[in-house]
Amino acid sequence: MRVFPWGFWLLCVAFAPARGDSGSKARSCAEVRQLYGAKGFSLSGVPQAEISGEHLRICPQGYTCCTSEMEENFANKSQSEFEAMMKEAGRSVQATLTAQHRSFDSYFQDLLNKSEKALYDAFPSIYGELYTQNVKVFKDLYSELRRYYRSSNINLEEALNEFWTRLLERLFKLLNPQYHITDEYLDCMVKHAEQHKPFGEVPRDLKVKATRAFIAARSYAQGFLVGSDVVRKVSQVSLSHECTRAIMKLMYCPHCRGMSSVRPCNNYCLNVVKGCLANQADLNTEWKYLMDSLIGVADRIDGPYNVDTVIGTIHMRIAEAISNLQENKDSITSKVFQGCGNPKISTKGSSTEDKKRRGKVTLEAKSSAQALEMLVLDAKGNLTALKTYWITLPSSLCSKKVMASSVSDDKCWNGMTKGSYLPQVMGDGLANQINNPEVEVDITKPDMTIRQQIMQLKIMTNRLGNANIGNDVDFQDTSDDMSGSGSGDSCPDDVCGKRLSKSPSTRQPETNAIPKQSGHGVNGASSRSLPSASLLLLLSVAVIAAQHLWR
Question: What is the pTM of this model?
Answer without folding.
Answer: 0.77
